[in-house]
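Hi all, long-time lurker, first post. I run a small reading group and we've been trying to get comfortable going from sequence to structure in the token notation. Rather than ask abstract questions, I figured I'd post a concrete chain and ask someone more experienced to write out its structure so we can walk through it together at our next meeting. Sequence below, copied exactly:
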Amino acid sequence: MPSKTSKTDALYHLECFDCKRVTKESESVTSCTKCGGPLVAKYDFAKIKSRINLYDIEHTPITGVKYLNFYPINDFEKVISLREGGTPLIRARNLGKKYKLNKLYLKNEGANPTGVFKDRGTLVEVTKAVELGAKAICLASTGNMAASVAAYSSIAGIPCYVLVPEGTPIGKLAQTLSYHARIIQVRGTYSDCAKLAEVMAKKHGFYLAGDYVFRREGQKSQGYEIVEQLFWKSPDYVVVPVGCGTNSAAIWQGFVDFKELGLINKLPKMIVVQPEGCNTVVDAAKHKKLKYKIVDKPISICSAVAAGTPLDGHIILKAVKDSGGFGVEVTDTEALIAQQSMAKNEGIFAEPSGALPMAAIKKLHEKKFFKPDDVIIAVITGNGLKDPVSATKILPSPPSIEPNIEEIDSYLKNKIYNIRGASADAAKKSLFKSKPTINKIKRVIEKDFDLKLNTKVVQKIQRELEEFISKGKNVTRYDFQNIVEDVVNAFTVKKKILEITDFKVAVSKKEPNRAEVEASYDGKILSSKAAGVGAFDAIMKAMQKIIRGQKGIKVTLQDFNVEIDEGGTDAVVKVTIVFTDEKSNKVVVSATSPDLIVASVNAFEKGYNLLWWKNKS
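-- Answer (accepted) --
Happy to help. Here is the structure in token form:
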């Protein structure tokens, strides 16, 4: 284990990666004060060798603090740690068999305290902030670093200010807020946030955290651990996602350090992976360049790596070249497919960015790049719970049933579990442009879902398809999946007391919206008019008039949620509504349509019929 004595200043120094100018910590801990290049730590390895006990290194259990002698920390008494590191290196037997790779491993960094690799770097970075007497920490983040730095800052008792791009996944924001960080959402990109955080730190005297030298030094422990977990051998390939390039450069440095110390005799090839919407480093590597082109507006579901101006891009490009590695670009679709494949085959749920390595490995397998006995490490950088919404884009909504065994029997008999998410590749495939026949619908359901639904259910699906097509919308595979889910869920209702046959809405910017509704209630054709704040509000009030007139049950809307499944003005809308009645019964219903109002009306109809049936039964 490391000594608790302080390191001497001569053990390491900071210098610019680009111009090689030596910089004192009192001058800068982020970038070169002369040319603006990234700073790197340079060690006196002769002194490191004299300070460490190699026997201890080889036999002590793995944790991030095990390697304190390899970090630029001067006072071990000030270390801020959450017992990060020591993450599992898992033999991917199922995926290995699938891709004919006998030695495929997953380094699961989602097992770190805040669910991401960033904790390793935060160990060093926040410790340095404490050493330097920081009054506050500020940083820019796409979400993961925000949560990590906020957690460690809370332990250190230092206020933490975080700038994130507007629209950062709520899972990451909730985590960061829970650590009592002060979040500011910026209407811009990560690069905009980074520039603003730098100005904020300089003006107010805050410690600027981020993808800088101390973070890189902490994150290199991944390389150390991989060597240890492979029984003191280096892998052939390390496949890692790239955002700012800091983590991939850190991992490479970890291998370089151990080779310098004589603990391994070779270095791995680095394969860096980026999504096509932010391919700064990969594009440069492809053209054998050591400088990248900035991507002004990164667009990718892999938000954790959407850095259009990677601060350590030049460092990782040199590492890729020195290692004999290369870059791989993948689509968002390929990342989501890899995310599901890892979860299904290896039980690891990664965020989309963390799934990039497996997406790349799949592509390389298809090109027959790897040899069967190559030792390959895929670095899975973050836990899927960081961004759970992204996974739902290609996953089905679970069916809802009443609490009785008959519905369980129906679920099993009809194989409802086969309504799997549309594969991301097929999700946008057009299935129907005109009204399909019953037999055609049955064939598609059997082919895509392995379901055999009775004619009554298929007829209802056909009517729902007609609504889509009448609006001028081609029905995609994903649309069809939502329709089938909606219809199957609605068949819990044994009797449909309310059916809204038509409605008309007059919308005005300055006056109340007005609605006229025609409905069948227990077989009676009725109509009603009402005004409301919004179009759906007016329709609801008109329907409630009809219901009150027929002495129907009183329902209350508790929650209303709208999801847009595709982009553009012709997007498909999924409305989910939570209803309750006077007996405290509650139902959650969804409906899908190209039209927001139609989806809302259909959801209201389903919710009312479910609650009416629950009351009567």
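A couple of things your group might point at:
Residues 217-391 form a domain with the Rossmann fold fold (CATH 3.40.50.1100).
Confidence is low (pLDDT under 50) at residues 1-8.
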